[in-house]
Design brief:
This protein is an alpha/beta fold. The chain has one domain: Spore Coat Polysaccharide Biosynthesis Protein SpsA, Chain A (Alpha-Beta Complex), CATH 3.90.550. The protein contains six helices and nine strands. The strands form two sheets. It has a seven-stranded mixed sheet, sandwiched between helices. Strand 7 (about 130-135) and strand 8 form a beta hairpin. Helix 2 (about 80-95) packs antiparallel against helix 4 (about 150-160). The protein is globular.
């Protein structure tokens, strides 16, 4: 374990279409009187050296959050990998001193407060190129740590090879997987449906 963590930029992935909620922006749904996006920012901002938001469409709808809004650079709603690529490209152009990007879904209101430190520690200890989160024997590939220097390889995988699943791409690299307990709550609980929002309201009453 290392005491000095590499600088890490956080990208909040908000490119989903929220079909199971009837459309709209999932991160703008409210839980306990606060948007999910507010909760994600509150969890991740202290852990990261800056945050950006990956979203397509009119960026003005996120203006109140005060974050740079970075759209996909690959057309056709290519999924989370496109958002990760956009973040790696943005970091290379705007934060050349930062080598690592943490991605997180914006429908996860209870993300762990030690997410970046544990992912970085595992990556360093295992000599891995990438790191992803897990809980309850399930990996969460959209919550991961990515090296900016891999952006051209990722672009090739997306554009030339038409790879969309994160697992297919990460299988090419040495990957550290870090597991969190699911009690008292699963920190990677994601609000995909109206029923999930109701459950998140219940969890928010007991989660600090």
């Amino acid at each position: 374990m290392t005491d000095v963590k590499p600088a890490t930029l956080g990208v909040l992935l908000a490119g989903g279409l929220a079909r199971r909620m009837g459309g709209g922006d999932k991160p703008m749904k409210t839980i306990g009187g606060r948007t999910i996006l507010d909760r994600v920012i509150e969890r991740l901002a202290p852990q990261c050296d800056g945050l950006i938001l990956n979203a397509n469409g009119d960026p003005a709808r996120f203006a109140s959050f005060g974050l740079p809004v970075v759209p996909d650079t690959v057309e056709g709603f290519a999924g989370p990998l496109a958002g990760i690529l956009a973040a790696l490209d943005w970091t290379a152009a705007n934060k050349p001193n930062i080598e690592w990007v943490l991605s997180a879904a914006t429908d996860c209101p209870f993300l762990p407060r030690d997410l970046v430190s544990r992912l970085q520690d595992a990556r360093i200890d295992e000599g891995a190129q990438l790191a992803v989160a897990a809980s309850g024997e399930q990996t969460h590939p959209v919550v991961g740590l990515w090296n900016v220097n891999l952006r051209d390889e990722l672009r090739h995988a997306l554009v030339v090879e038409d790879i969309r699943k994160i697992d297919r791409w990460t299988a090419r690299y040495k990957l550290a997987t870090v597991a969190w307990p699911v009690e008292p709550i699963d920190p990677f609980f994601n609000a995909n449906t109206v029923e999930d929002i109701a459950e998140a309201e219940r969890i928010a009453m007991v989660d600090n």
